[in-house]
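Quick check before the chapter quiz. The format below is the same one you will see on the exam, so make sure you can read both the input and the output lines.
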Amino acid sequence: MSQPQLEAMPDDWTRALAVVAHPDDLEYGCAAAVACWTDRGKEVAYLLVSRGEAGIDTLAPAECAPLREREQRASAAVVGVSAVEFLDHHDGVIEYGTALRRDIAAAVRRHRPELVITLNHRDTWGPAVGGNWNTPDHRAVGRATLDAAGDAGNRWIFPELLTEQGLEPWSGVRWVAIAGSATPTHAVGAAAGLDRAVRSLLEHRSYIEALTDEDPEDYCRTFQNGNVRALADRFGGRPAVGFEIFGR
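Here is the expected output.
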């Protein structure tokens, strides 16, 4: 049975905040869409909950963390993002809970986005990508981001954000968009951002070289081409990045 066509992603917004667990999560998830958005003058900021310090087996965390931070900042710049923040939760053992919700809610109040983006928060990646079990970090950060989008607007949840940090409540989040969802509802045409998405992922060269023996550029191009073409038949034949949208 054919799947339903995807709706176009809402476009009547000015600011977005993307919240993920690790450097490279956004490059694997939605960099082509980000490039298209910044081309149109939209502001996108990145919040990384960890520095990805446990991601390269051959590098100790103390050496890996600053390397992956540098690669993430360079990667973001390729798609027009200059605001990149890190929270310093520990890679691999990020815990869902009030501490994580508070940190993300604080970032939402600082950046005041209308759109919040995160990565698949569910247990698996779904059959389209092999049905593999999702990582604890992705599940924790995705769930906490969905919750923090509401927490940010309630002055009585985490009142210390106002009294200690001067962060006024922000109830302006209109949507939370889940990249990498097995059940996308919307999409963004990605053709104009595809080459930059390849280059953005390629900036994570240290991670990619540890991950695969394939030529890094070939690996990045193959992945990104496959990613944006996977949903084309549900979006008028156009290469696209899919999102599952939750309205607020």
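If your answer matched, good. Residues 61-78 form the longest helix (18 residues).
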